[in-house]
Amino acid sequence: MNVKGHYEWLQRLTPLLVAIMIANVLTVFLGFWWGDTYSIIWLSLALISFIHFFGRLRLPRFLLYVLDLVVIIMITMLITRHRYVPIIEDITLFPRIWHYMQSLHPFVVIVLAVVVAQLILSSWVITKKRLYIFFSFSLLILCVKDSFSPLKLWPHIVVIIVLFLIWHTLLHFQHLQQKNSNSFKLLLHRPLAIIVPIVTVIGMLLVIGMNLPAKPPLLEDPYALWKQSRGEKVEIGNGLGNRNNRSTSTSMDS
Question: Disulfide check for 104: which of 108, 125, 207, 240 has CB 3.0–4.6 Å away?
Answer without folding.
Answer: 108
